[in-house]
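Summary of Year 1 activities. Much of the first year was spent building the evaluation harness for sequence design. The harness presents a backbone, in tokenized form, and records the residue chosen at every position. We chose the following record to illustrate the format because it has been used consistently in internal testing since the harness was completed.
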């Protein structure tokens, strides 16, 4: 007998793949801009006039409850060379509890210094309208721990929140590596303290030498690295106490034509963390406008 939960996951992934396939047929070739890491941002911005459409599921194991699949559909647009805007639509499915749409997010990133510097700052601001059933885990802040995700979906889907999130992104290119550090601050607009978190990543292409021919499996099309991220408490209790932290190697494959595939097995670093998460993503760039500087 088939498992209804697995069938639901299969339907969601097939619909996502079909959407990206249609975009691939419609769009002209474009260079993929998706960053290899899932949580840590660098100073890479979307090309002006390009729309990137991506699907990013995360599978998580859960002690004391059913495993889950969280996912977000992202629409990223290059408004200017110094300004990238994104909209996210979030959802999740938990084994034995069903599935739910959990909300949307509106993100803006601004790069004040367009020329390359030793340290390249980017300013990030996001508004989120989500419920507590959200399990995308796009970042970890405050005292976000595994136990919170064990609360029943029937209850958490009714608890709605409006949040504001800010990040200071610092990114440097050093000897073929990109090293990025994100400081994160998040606030529930209705109540509560400011919550803090961090994310750090080191990324490198598999090779720095590009071939003169068009190819799919060339080393230049692959990049990888590792990121570490977690919570730093809040204004009432800043620090590492009662927080969760993760270590996540990742790899990205940029296909000719503007499609990027990403994969990241993720491991919890303490008892408050999920033991294991598996992130994977597919994104496609679509040129839709002329953009500008």
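For this record, the design step produced the sequence shown next.
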């Amino acid at each position: 007998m088939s498992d209804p939960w697995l069938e639901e996951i299969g339907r969601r992934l097939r619909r996502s793949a079909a959407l990206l396939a249609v975009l691939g047929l419609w769009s002209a070739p474009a260079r993929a801009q998706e960053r290899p890491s899932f949580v840590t941002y660098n100073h890479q911005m979307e090309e002006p006039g390009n729309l990137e459409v991506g699907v990013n599921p995360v599978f998580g194991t859960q002690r004391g409850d059913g495993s889950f699949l969280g996912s977000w559909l992202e629409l990223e647009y290059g408004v200017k060379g110094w300004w990238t805007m994104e909209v996210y639509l979030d959802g999740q499915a938990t084994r034995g509890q069903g599935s739910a749409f959990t909300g949307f997010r509106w993100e803006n990133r601004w790069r004040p210094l367009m020329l390359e510097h030793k340290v390249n700052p980017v300013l990030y601001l996001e508004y989120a309208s989500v419920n507590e059933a959200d399990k995308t885990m796009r970042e970890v802040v405050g005292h976000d721990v595994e136990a919170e995700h064990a609360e029943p979906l029937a209850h958490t889907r009714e608890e709605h929140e409006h949040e504001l999130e800010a990040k200071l992104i610092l990114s440097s290119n050093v000897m073929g590596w990109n090293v990025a550090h994100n400081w994160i601050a998040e606030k529930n607009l209705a109540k509560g303290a400011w919550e803090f978190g961090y994310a750090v990543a080191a990324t490198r292409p598999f090779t720095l030498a590009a071939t003169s021919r068009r190819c799919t499996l060339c080393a230049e099309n692959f990049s990888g690295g590792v990121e570490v991220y977690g919570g730093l408490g809040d204004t009432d209790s800043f620090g590492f106490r009662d927080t969760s932290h993760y270590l996540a190697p990742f790899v990205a494959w940029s296909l000719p034509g503007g499609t990027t595939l990403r994969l990241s097995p993720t491991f919890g670093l303490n008892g408050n963390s999920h033991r294991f998460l598996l992130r994977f993503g597919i994104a496609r760039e679509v040129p839709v406008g002329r953009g500008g500087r």
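The first strand starts at residue 50 and ends at 60. Quantitative recovery figures across the full test set are reported in Table 2.
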